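We both want to read C-alpha cells more fluently, so let's practise on a single case. Once you have written the record down, we can walk along the chain together.
***
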Amino acid sequence: MYEIFEELLKNNGLTAYKVSQEAKVPQSTLSDWKRGRSIPKVDKLQKLADYFGVSVDYLMGLNKTVAPIETVAGLSPEYINIMVEAKDEGFSPDDIKLALSLLRMARDKK
C-alpha cells in the first residue's frame, strides 16, 4: 500500500513531509506505514485519499484505476476497517471486493 502513496507523491511532485503537514496526518503515522509497522487508520486513509483526490480503494491497492472518491461513499467506517484488515491479512483485492459486494447487498436488504 505504501508504494501507491509513494507513487502519488512522485506523480504530484510532493514529499511525505508536505503531505503530512497539509493533510494533517502525523509524519510518524506515515513512517510506521512505510516500515510496515502499521497502516493508517480509516480516518487517516480518508484524509490521504481526499488530499490526492483518489478513493480509499485506490490508495489501498484494491482498485488499480484512479477512481473518484465516491467509490466508498455510503460505506461506514466499519466497512472500510474490514477492507483494511482483510488487505493486511493477505486477502486478494478480488476477495475483498466480493466481500464488500455481499456487505452492500446485506445493507441494501434492510
About this structure: The radius of gyration is 14 Å. The helical segments are 2-11, 16-23, 27-34, 42-52, 56-59, 77-88, 93-109.
